[in-house]
Design goal:
It is built from 14 helices and 15 strands. The chain has 374 residues and is of the alpha/beta class.
Amino acid sequence: MTGPSIVLGGGGTAGHVSPLLAIADAIRATRPDADLVAVGTPTGMETRLVPAAGYRLATIERVPMPRSLSADLLRLPTRLAKAVRQAGEILDRAHADAVVGVGGYVCTPLYLAARRRGVPIVIHEANVTAGLANRVGARFATTVATAFSQTKLPHAKLVGMPMNRAIADLDRSAARAAARARFGIDPDARLLAVTGGSSGAASLNRALIAALPALAEAGISVLHVTGRGKRMESAPGVPVTAEHYTQVEYVDGMADLYAAADLLVARAGAGTVSEVAAVGLPAVFVPLPHGNGEQALNARFLVDAGAALIVRDPEFTADWIGAHVPELLHDDARLSGMAAAAAERGIRDADRTMAALVLEAAAQHANHTTGGAR
């Protein structure tokens, strides 16, 4: 008896890779005999993150959809056909029982190749506004799951955001002391954590540095995740230092950051919003000022519930920070209410739900094609 063969597609950004890995981990926890392979592009973050997590990675060509009439648009059919062939070869080698897609450039070719072979497709859409690949794939997928109830896709079911179990299982109160010790933070401090994600956010970084005197005067400690290669410097080669201020470029293991913080300032990526809800952490979201506005939509359910604040990027200034953050961090009743409202809306078992959906689809396919040999 052999285990199910699952091909997982997605990549480009951590927003795609993180839920993909969470689903893979949950499948492996349920079926250690499962054969898993991830599909990405040769240039995305998956080239580093997937092997580091212990999974095989196969790559196909990146086929972005041109936004206007151009030579790229004329080349699209040929490039897409090649990527579909590459995806099909991966499915054939794997003898795939199911395909899981989380969106991104690789998913459209993967969905088309799976459809041609009759391999069931299970889709997870992370954002309120669905991406193009998942809008296409949802038309013929076996199962469509979403992180947010507002997402409009055919036959979609709400499952939440698959996330690392260290975050999903986090007890912030129990982990607080050890997390603060890791970062060298006073265990009794009022702690503001600020992060723009793994790549950082220049506007958030600048506003925070300008607000440090006001925060120090108010007795607020700051843990600042600047982003890789974006250390804040007071002079060339000289990192910014200030009273009760700690900066790091990157945090490996966001659970510790969430446990240490009393309040988080961050972008409103779907993963961050979902994790904040799951762990019950009060937050101030500063959505990306460009794109289709999806980050503001991602955060809306927490903002409407009183679990978070939302600030437009141009309005997130040192003056805004000084006027609002100290008052909030010194209001225990309000922070407790925000934390409870967030936790009430958090979903902690999306990875396991997705794993069950995928394994069910794979079992049905295997029984159909092999007469129940698996």
